Amino acid sequence: MNSTIELLLSHRSIRKFTDQNIPRELFDTLIRAGQSAATSNHVQAYSIIHVVNPENRRKLAELAGGQTYVAECSDFLVFCADMKRSTEAAERAGADIVRGMTEQLLVASVDTALMAQNVAIAAESEGLGLCYIGGIRNNPAAVSELLRLPDHVYPVFGMCLGYPDQQPDVKPRLPLESILKEDHYQDDNDAALVAQFDDTMRQYYLARTGGNKDTNWSEQLKPLFTSKLRPHMADFLKGKGFKLK
């Protein structure tokens, strides 16, 4: 394997960081690397809020569910899906704009995720660690107010960046056979493959916690699908101008 593939296969979330700050020149380079990601029709439907104010960092950590590393990492970013800039540019060019289409929401969300992953890979290539913060969507209205996000812009997730102060093991992934299908969707062997993966994850959790966490992948999924996960998001997105038309 080449070094790029080795880097990708070694990804792990980092939640403990040293006090060392990321040099500004390197930080800007990471963002430029993010901009080089693929983007639908060159729309570049994203904006990044670099949260520098310590008090705002603390507020975001609380809004994201008490994730203290949001306040403790060198740099914290909030990646936002942004259809405001591009639609207004087209409008100034003379277009009769249609806003609120579901496809616009999808394009902006996908563009944002691709851009963020480029930033993540670039950061890890420089020896940095990161952790995505989906908890930003726990309180998207409060986050939007704090960051002064206008209509047609919504916070997708956050990202902690910094120099790692831990080296956790790489978390196993599903067997390739369970996610790679040829020609058509096939799930005849999924139950067996998931059972195999559950055994793998049980051993991973036991080893990581010194025997204190006896669970598996399927068990960990249960809370996600036995309650309505972030039911506020539909109304929030509609309120931000993403009408899902």
UniProtKB/TrEMBL annotation:
Homology family = Belongs to the flavin oxidoreductase frp family.
Statement: the UniProt record of this protein carries the keyword Coiled coil? no
- What InterPro entries does the annotation carry? Flavin_OxRdtase_Frp, Nitroreductase, Nitroreductase-like
**Which positions make up the signal peptide?**
none
Show where the Nitroreductase domain sits.
10-163
Organism this protein belongs to? Marinobacter mobilis
Cross-referenced Gene3D superfamilies: NADH Oxidase
CDD domains, A to Z: NfsA-like (cd02146)
Q: Name one GO molecular function term.
A: oxidoreductase activity
Keyword Flavoprotein attributed: yes
Q: What is this protein called?
A: Nitroreductase
